[in-house]
Inverse folding.
């Protein structure tokens, strides 16, 4: 599928810094030193509803990852999927009397518009689950040959015990895994499984549901984790730099994906860092399509909110924290945007080199966007109080905010 258009990323004076980022698997920060091409996989949406602020916050975190890398003059090879066939999508289409493909297409289109408005850098490869099926089938067949997969009725399951590293992404105990597996698309209580946690790789065709030719697997559709693995291995290969998503994906999704990939290739690890964004809540509960407590990016845009203010609202929270969306968060961001725009629209100002370095340092240190905002705020305050004579400073500030924070002033 096609992605969305890229906005320009201006080059900045001086030297970018290597990204140090918290890795869920080691529970510690790691300094990533990608080659000339950094490799990033971020899990995409399941397109059955519009982009909400939780999605936007997660994609914002990984947009910052790219911007820090681009500032070090690396290229970024970024891959994202669209889970355009899965239970929740089929269920929503059924509930609303819609054709599931039309629903997926419509919501993916809106996601692209939202991402473009927010100036999120697009993936180089944007791949739907459906288009990935021809690549998924041989992987499942291979796992079967390796004895890492087994059939149950006509479905095919992955055996978590086939990966000696299983559990090393999320570090949860068996009881917690079982609970999360039941909550997040697994079926731990299905009789006949070797281990209750074993996830489905291939679901045999069900009456009234879409299915595809699966070669020796028979007709059916892919499981969720193998979808992302097939796409990541196809476009990035093993040992890529960052596997990203919200914290609700650490288990089972990223744990299972890592195990699939590690067993398939015999290599370890799948990714050098597993990076997870915190959950955005509304009225005290995680924003989620299934609960319906949502603030949509498109709704705010329709109400006339400047997408740049939405970005600033996202940056005001550290990506790893769980936080609550409120009207005040947005009001603060709107006010900040206005002040920043006024400050950079003057023809000169106080020198900005320190600010560039402070923004760089903040982002390179586990994407500390709130600290980056504070550094810009300090320059803006100096501009408001005393001004300055440096004719290049306003331009340097606006290019820094554009290149590193994705905000066009
Ligand atoms: N298609 C799968 C990934 S392969 C999926 O999880 N789709 S999703 O539409 O449910 O979520 C898309 C991304 O948004 C995921 O990274 C998820 O972790 C993140 N996300 C979902 N809800 C929130 C939330 N309330 N706060 C922060 N991030 C969220
Ligand atoms: Zn995924």
């Amino acid at each position: 599928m096609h992605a969305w258009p890229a906005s320009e990323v201006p080059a900045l004076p001086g030297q970018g810094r290597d990204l140090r980022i918290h890795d869920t698997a080691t529970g510690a920060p790691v300094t990533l030193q990608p080659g000339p091409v950094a490799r990033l996989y971020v899990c995409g949406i399941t397109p059955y509803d519009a982009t909400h602020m939780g999605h936007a916050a997660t994609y914002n975190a990984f947009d910052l990852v790219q911007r820090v890398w681009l500032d070090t003059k690396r290229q970024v090879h970024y891959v994202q999927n669209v889970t355009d066939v899965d239970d929740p999508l089929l269920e929503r289409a059924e509930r609303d009397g819609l054709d599931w493909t039309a629903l997926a297409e419509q919501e993916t289109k809106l996601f692209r518009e939202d991402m473009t408005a927010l100036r999120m850098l697009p993936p180089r490869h944007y791949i739907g689950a459906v288009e990935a099926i021809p690549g998924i089938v041989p992987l499942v067949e291979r796992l079967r040959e390796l004895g890492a997969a087994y059939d149950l009725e006509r479905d095919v399951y992955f055996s978590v015990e086939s990966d000696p590293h299983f559990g090393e992404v999320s570090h949860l105990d068996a009881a917690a895994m079982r609970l999360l597996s039941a909550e997040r698309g697994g079926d731990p209580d299905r009789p006949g499984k070797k281990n209750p946690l074993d996830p489905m790789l291939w679901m045999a065709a069900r009456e009234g549901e879409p299915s595809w030719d699966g070669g020796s697997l028979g007709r059916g559709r892919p499981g969720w984790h193998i979808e992302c693995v097939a796409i990541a291995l196809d476009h990035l290969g093993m040992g890529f730099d960052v596997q990203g998503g919200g914290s609700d994906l650490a288990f089972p999704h990223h744990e299972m994906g890592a195990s699939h990939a590690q067993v398939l290739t015999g290599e370890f690890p799948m990714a050098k860092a597993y990076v997870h964004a915190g959950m955005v809540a509304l009225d005290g509960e995680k924003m989620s399509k299934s609960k319906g407590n949502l603030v949509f990016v498109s709704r705010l845009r329709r109400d006339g909110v400047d997408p740049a203010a939405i970005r600033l609202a996202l940056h005001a929270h550290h990506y790893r924290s769980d936080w609550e969306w409120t009207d005040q968060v947005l009001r603060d961001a709107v006010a900040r945007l206005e002040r920043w725009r006024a400050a950079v629209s003057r023809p000169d100002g106080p020198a900005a080199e320190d600010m560039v370095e402070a923004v760089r340092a903040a982002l390179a240190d586990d994407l500390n966007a709130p600290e980056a905002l504070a550094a810009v705020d300090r320059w803006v305050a100096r501009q408001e109080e005393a001004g300055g004579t440096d004719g290049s400073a306003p331009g340097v500030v606006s290019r820094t905010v554009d290149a590193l924070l994705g905000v066009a002033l």
Q: What stands out?
A: The radius of gyration is 22 Å. The pocket of zinc ion (ligand 2) is lined by residues 43, 81, 228, 253 (CB under 6 Å). The longest strand covers residues 75-82. The mean pLDDT is 97.
